[in-house]
Amino acid sequence: MSTSPPPPSPSTAARRLNAGGELWRAVSGRVARVVGRVHQTWRRSLQVRVVTITLVASSLLVGGFAFLIADKITTILLDNARSDVRQRVTSGASYAAKQVSFYGQPQEAQLQETIDGTVNYLAGGDPQQTSGVVVAITADGYPDDIQTRTAPSANVRLLISPELRAAIADGKVASQIRTGRLTGDTTKYLVYGSPVPTRFGQIELYYLVPLTRQDVTAADARATVVATGVALVILLGLLAALVTRLVVNPVRVAARTAQRLSAGLLDQRMVVNGEDDLALLAASFNQMATNLQRQILRLEEMSRLQRRFTSDVSHELRTPLTTVRMAADLIFAERDEFDPAVARSAELLQAELDRFEELLTDLLEISRFDAGFAMLDSEPTDLVPVVHRVVDRLAGLAERVGVPIELDLPGTPVIAEVDPRRVERVLRNLVGNAVEHGEARPVLITLGIDDTAVAITVRDHGVGLKVGEEKLVFNRFWRADPSRARQTGGTGLGLSISLEDARLHGGWLEAWGAPGQGAQFRLTLPARAGDRLTTSPLRLVPADAALPFGGPRDGGPLAIGPGSGGALAIGLASSPDGQRAEVRS
Q1: What is the pLDDT along the chain (585 residues), one digit of tens a residue?
Q2: In this structure, are residues 514 and 500 in contact, taking their beta carbons and an 8 Å threshold?
Q3: What is the DSSP letter of 539?
Q4: Is 120 exposed, middle or buried (0-12, 13-18, 19+ CB in 10 A)?
Q5: What are phi and psi of 374, to 5 degrees?
């Protein structure tokens, strides 16, 4: 009594299922990696694409050509075999008809011997001939009187189809190709039949010719054509690789040279070999690089001279400014003893000297930024007192223009590794601009912090920024409304210096604005000096901003502003006019 094995336990089945799943994931992951590398190579290598396309196209063309050639050779061989066998059948049928023409009845005693001799003669005189051709005479109309005779001896009934017998019975010469075994291995035969007329009726003559030689010849021809085609495809692939390499290599050299040029290595040049088109390309590229180097050096020299001029002028103006300042202070102190018109002139002189001195200070600071000499003195700083100092300093101006300043600060210290002098200067510029453009509406200062960054936003509800002005707000000496009177007597360099200060910290200075909705500036700094920013604790678009089409507050069209290292940074813009700029350092 046999017993069936117990079914696997649920835990065993689960382990098998998990193992199968892991195997499938490993295989699919490897396939995905291979496909990814192939796709990456296809996208990056022009030579691979050209060679692959050449191989595929040439394979299709050579394959089609080889098929046509092989088919043509097979057809010719078969037609030749048909023609030869047809002639043999025709002459054989005439000979057999003469041999049996003396007999008037199928029952005559000598008829069978005559048929046997005729078959042997038509087969070549040797009943055991080894050429493979089988000759047969049948008499389907007299099966009892005349027996089928073949030379060599074989059962040909299996290779003569009823359709062929019917065609011969109708007095036609017909043929067909059949596969079977007669005298040895299974072989393909060309079976040809012809009627043989007699005095008592009709008998049939069949030639069964093996097509082994034709098949071997056709196979050899196909192998030769295929081998030639493969060799031709490989040769075309190698030729395409060589030609592509001759073209791609100079292009790759040009690309590497262009990368070195863009990296600042202005003395890099391509090697010029020969006088062909590629040599002309290399020569033109070198000429372009030479012109660019000359132009860049000239611009660098002009920029250096401009910075030197600005710095020298600023320093040289210090001495006469000090003298004028001393005289102006003396006149300003004695203004009560002058006529009202002279006293007013003394006040105006004092105010303009203050603005001139501030402008010189800003110019010196800008020249240090341009020369790359600005240094960052970072230290752990609580930003809450920094914000309070800025507000206290601008409280008189805010009270004079009727703009209240509101604070939204954390109740705990906000510590970050920053340069407190530079951060205070940035906030002073931002808050001063917000107060000046506040239109007697509150200015809100918000301070936020997360694990990696601190951010300060300054929000006003004044006239805002028009379309396109968000790209200009950090430019030097730019003013949104040139006819607008300044309340703070600014120099026009405050926001430019603020952007450089933020960039020096590795932070962002961003602006958003919309007509009639005011503006908001956001300063984001890394909490630890040297860290890279990825997000900001505070949003740039204020929560009370009206959005177009009800879209998300951080979505919208793109706006472009100055970026790090002189590059451009792209941020999202969203406002009723699609106006939001992110200026990132």
Answers
A1: 445 555 555 566 666 667 777 788 888 888 888 888 888 878 777 778 888 888 888 888 888 888 898 889 888 988 998 899 899 898 988 988 888 888 878 777 788 888 888 888 888 754 445 567 888 888 887 877 788 888 888 888 888 888 888 888 888 889 888 888 877 778 888 899 999 888 888 888 999 888 888 888 888 888 998 898 889 889 988 888 888 888 788 888 888 888 888 887 878 888 888 777 778 888 888 888 888 888 888 887 877 776 677 667 766 777 787 788 788 888 888 888 888 888 888 888 877 777 777 777 766 676 666 666 677 888 999 999 999 999 998 888 888 888 999 999 998 999 999 988 889 889 988 998 889 888 889 999 999 999 899 999 999 988 888 777 767 777 777 665 554 544 444 556 778 888 888 888 889 898 888 888 889 999 999 998 888 888 899 998 888 877 554 444 443 333 333 333 333 333 333 333 333 333 333
A2: no
A3: -
A4: middle
A5: -70, 130
Beta-carbon neighbour count of residue 366 at 10 Å? 21
Token readout for 367 is: 């020249």
Angle at 388 between CA 385 and CA 393, to 5 degrees: 130
Q: Do 135 and 102 touch, CB atoms closer than 8 A? A: no
- What does the alpha-carbon distance between residue 244 and residue 47 come to, in Å, rounded to a whole number? 6
Residue environment code for 443-473, b if the CB has 16+ CB neighbours within 10 A, otherwise e: bbbbbbbeebbbbbbbbbbbbbbeeebbbeb
- The answer to whether the CB of 516 falls within 8 A of the CB of 464 is yes
Asked if 138 and 201 count as a contact pair (C-beta separation under 8 A), the reply is: no
The answer to whether the beta carbons of residues 332 and 349 sit under 8 Å apart is yes
Residues in contact with 321: Cβ distance below 8 Å, sequence separation at least 6, in sequence order: 353, 356, 357, 360
How far is residue 507's CA from residue 538's CA, in Å, rounded to a whole number? Answer: 14
Task: For the full predicted model, state whether its pTM sits above 0.70.
Answer: no
3-class state of residue 118 by DSSP = helix
Bridge partners (DSSP) of residue 381 are: 416
Q: State the pairing for strand pair 134-138/149-151.
A: antiparallel
Give the CA dihedral 253, 254, 256, 262, nearest 10 degrees.
Answer: 160
**What whole-number distance in Å separates Cα of residue 508 and Cα of residue 250?**
41
Q: In which element (H, E) is residue 12 found?
A: helix 10-44
